[in-house]
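Worked example 2:
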Amino acid sequence: MRNKVYCMAIIAVSVLLAATPALFAKTVLKVGTSTQPSHIYNLAVERFGEIVGERTGGEVEVQLFPAAQLGSERDMVEGLQLGTLEMTLTSTGPLGNFVPQVKLFNLPFLFKDREAAYRVLDGPIGTGIADKFQSVGIRSLGWFENGFRNITNSQVAVEQPGDMDGIKIRVMEDDVFILTMQSLGASPLPMAFGELYTALEQKTVDAQENPLAVIHSSRFFEVQDYLAMTGHFYSPAMLLISEIAWAKLTPEQQAIVQEAATLARDYERELSMKADQELEAALKQEGMTITYPEKEAFVEAVAAVYENPDVIKAIGGGNMEEGQQLIDAARAAAQ
């Protein structure tokens, strides 16, 4: 009799577990980044994970994988499409391969300051471009940032565009970046970020360009002597989630994830602004020679990028008219 009661209890528990899986299941969202653990991307993902965990009562767990552990930025975005990765926080470098209109934000000197960038990114232009990711199996959870990009190199203190002549510089895998550096007289070499430190150390490339937060967290000061505060690109970033992973969340969980992303975005932007204020002095202390070139000469040197038919067409997703409209609208909104 005792064994019969015991068996019936086991069966009852099994039925309960089968009937109420949501009470016991945990959803894991793996988030990959390409940057070192101390970088603001990863601090933002950690904040995002804390908020999601608290507000879902632990039903959704965010796991961070920094430093390209899950592959290059392009690899990770492709993983979202395939459903082999849930999320990534990535620069815009590879995103133009998925939504061409993102290339708009790779134009040099498009934004004079962060406020101008936020007006465009958080307004109709940025929202419209972000929404296009759903058509390729990915959902944008918001525009984060990597800040204004500056040039480091191991050859010369850059004061004017002519100082860039012949310098081999690593750039993101994007044709607008390549054309911009060619306009400055440099020799651009597209390369995944995970390969960059070794390439600089081995002198495969002479230079690179990135925001101060990346330059410092990646310890490029160990293999680069000169920093030029050019601010030539403002570099947005995007927190992306696979539509496959998104569909597995309940409507309530989806709302929490989106709210957490917005809060993490604001937090990350504050970190980025603070990094620009503090890391310049830190890099100088690490021994880098810092120059402050007059930007007007650089703006003039890259002006032709805005008039290049291939660039305009690329930004329009193959449509010249759409590309020109996007460029004109962004420049007007940024004023």
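Confidence is low (pLDDT under 50) at residues 5-23. The two ends are 83 Å apart (CA to CA).
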